[in-house]
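pinging the channel bc i need a second pair of eyes. not urgent but kinda urgent?? the chain im working w is below, pasted from the shared doc
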Amino acid sequence: MPVRDTEHTAPHRVTATVCPNCDRHHPAPEVQGVSAYFTLNERITDDEIEGAAQVLSDWARYVAAHPPTYTTDDLDDEIKAWERGEM
């Protein structure tokens, strides 16, 4: 998702994911909204475009205001969890 930093002129990207297992108890309603949407809808259809747009827009604003922090230790932990079949 493109993010513009108002102090600098170069835009940068932030990768943010929502995992139905990992984020099940996330306190932010924006995260819960995306998780719930894709639990109920496998994909975005023409009939659902407006509802999906609102949920995704809310989530994108949340992520822009609360960018995820991710370290190499986090990556190592996720790789190990994936190898154990936990992801």
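so The mean pLDDT is 82. and The chain has three helices and two strands. — does that match what u expected or am i reading it wrong
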